[in-house]
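User: quick one, fold this
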Amino acid sequence: MSRVARLSSRARLPLRCGILALALLLSGCATHVPQVLTPQITPKSFSGQVVGSEQVWPQPDWWRTFGSAELSDLIEKAGADNRDLAVAVARVMEARAQTTIQRAALFPQINAQAQALRSPSGQSGQSISGQSYSAGNSFGLTFGASYELDFWGLAHDNLRAAKEALKSARFAQQAVALTVTSNVASAYFSVMALRVRIAIANENIKAINGILETINLRVSTGKSSRLDLAQEQAQVESVEAQLPMLEEQELEARVALAVLLGEPPEGFEVKTQTLDAFHLPVVQAGLPSELLLRRPDVAEAEANLAGAHANLDAARAAFLPQFALAGNGGFASTAINALLHGPNFAWDFGANLLQTVFDGGKLIGQKELARATQQELVASYQSAALNAYADLENALGQVANNSKAEFHLGREVEAAREAFTISQLQYRQGVTELLTVLQAQQTLFAAEDQLAQTTLAHMQAVVHLYEALGGGWMESAQDRTQFTSDRRASLSVAPQ
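Assistant:
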């Protein structure tokens, strides 16, 4: 190799090294979101899952499985008029506008300006304070353009953060919608259960009054003392005192339901009176690894983490020099009819580079803040995942245990009703004392009331299970930034 060739090769070596360093630097600007779904926080199965049961995820219209047209109408109205949901929709609009603002940094900024000036000249004319001037005219039409080169991806990082914020707002809207739907169903069932309890109390009062008639007859014939009459009167007053409290609770449940529907409580009514017409569906969870894809609150935390990572990338890019191009062109003339003539056109073009030399640690502080925020949101995402699993476990347990309790309480009510009937018959025949009748009556009333409450708890547990399973919502593949260990093995994740 000639001496000239060797010199040429040596001259190109620094250039190649510079290009390689620049390529490495650019590749480091766009990094992957840290993967934080560790096996320690992902269970292999759900302890409350029924062994051998079919894994059925809810449908988006899961509330229809209860078989109530009125409930479906109320949920549809809440979806249109609920105020919390309206707030969530507005926040999505805000996030979408912020994305538009950040996207604008990727495009040139073009401005136009037209001006017309009238100023005095030094020639003879009108006299002002002893001096003579004549007015002169000037006209101008200028255009300016500027473009900041996103050489290090700063603008793209900011846009990525805005897009993740938009995703987070959309997921938050879905979470609010799911919560509103579940709350409407729970409040609706509460109204029904309280009406059942009121009906039970009225039936109990009716039964007590029937016994009072028997006691009055026995007292008048001398077969019973006034002690029996006083005891039964105390019993009826006790139940009468509970009735207004139940009616107040029913009113409060209807008021809460009206607020969920976005309408004033005055005049709001619910037509259904009992829980008998409702169907309790069977729903089960699928694989634990799929649950996080079906929880909008977890997806919201995932998007927040991805947005924080984009902000960290932007904070890193802010250390690098920023390049900008600028150009101006326009026309200037003393006569408007000659403004657009070629000789009156002028232009200029330039570029500039901006590099922060000293800012008192501002950029370093911004980077450390972004890093700390990312660490916070890593923990928040992991907490959201753990809470989702815990929420589902609780819901599965509530459904199973309330179902068992409801079954046994139903049998207790049957036995207590038979005992009460027998005790009344024996008392009328003088075979047993009033105390036995009172005990049987109290047992029946308490069992019926407890059964109504447990039935409500069972139905609300099913609603909670639907909510814990995500209510039929599903995160799309393009929105995901976190992956389970089996999926992550196929991804190339840059070290953080």
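User: anything notable?
Assistant: The domain at 108-149+321-354 is CATH 2.20.200.10 (Outer membrane efflux proteins (OEP)).
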